[in-house]
From TrEMBL:
The keyword Lyase applies. This is Short-chain-enoyl-CoA hydratase. InterPro entries: ClpP/crotonase-like_dom_sf, Enoyl-CoA_hyd/isom_CS, Enoyl-CoA_hydra/iso, Enoyl-CoA_hydra_C. One of its GO terms (molecular function) is 3-hydroxyacyl-CoA dehydratase activity. Gene3D superfamilies: 2-enoyl-CoA Hydratase, Chain A, domain 1, Lyase 2-enoyl-coa Hydratase, Chain A, domain 2. Its EC number is 4.2.1.150. Belongs to the enoyl-CoA hydratase/isomerase family. PROSITE patterns: ENOYL_COA_HYDRATASE (PS00166). It comes from the Bacteria.
Amino acid sequence: MTENHRYKNYTAIEFDRPLEGVLRLTLNNPERMNSLDSRGHAELAEVWREIDTDPEVSAVVIRGAGRAFSAGGDFRMLDEINDDFKARARVWREARDLVYNIINCSKPIVSAIHGPAVGAGLVAALLADISIAAKSARIVDGHTKLGVAAGDHAAIIWPLLCGMAKAKYHLMLCEPVSGQEAEALGLVSICVEDDVLQEKALEIAGKLAAGAPAALRWTKYALNNWLRQAGPIFDTSLALEFMGFGSPEAKEGVSALQQKRAAQFDRDIAV
């Protein structure tokens, strides 16, 4: 059934309750591969607080509509961040809240990742408690290609999941990771065939929803202290990312991406 109460004012996310105690979030902009505009970015950051206090939710599934999980932020939002300090400050706050709100949400979260998974959508995909990737998944952290530091979730969790050497390789070079590679690296919990992805996500969410609520939530809370103690690392990475927006590198990176060409970064910038 379609959710029509707590979440009725959300526009970028569609809600339904496919199983008892399970709330499913669908990033719902398939024509643009579920890229997030300013409204969608804010909603994805805020929704976890609402879920945390929803007594009818025992477990969560997050997925993308159409052929992608999420293509990240759209070009309009990127241009706005580059050009407007107030927008940059607002999106920085949302990016911070997105990570901490997911970490602090007491309800177990399952992500079902297929196709491209980039940007803010990737934050939710990899910070989920159980991450399930289809073989078609293409996980990319593309920050440095945009001319900004790898902020968002990258520094707080990639080294913990796949080790520092692999984290640096993929985050500095923006090398994509398939679903199978992500499972082998430890970046996701499991990889499955595309045609069983949604079924598997619901199966796991159903088990979590039927489990002992306090035991599961306290286990999540304790384990997430690994992430909380890395908070200063995350805060630094996010600050450096947003310091980069508005710079010549960021403007060239976004322009190159829009024009589908190789970026030409200035070699003489002193940092």
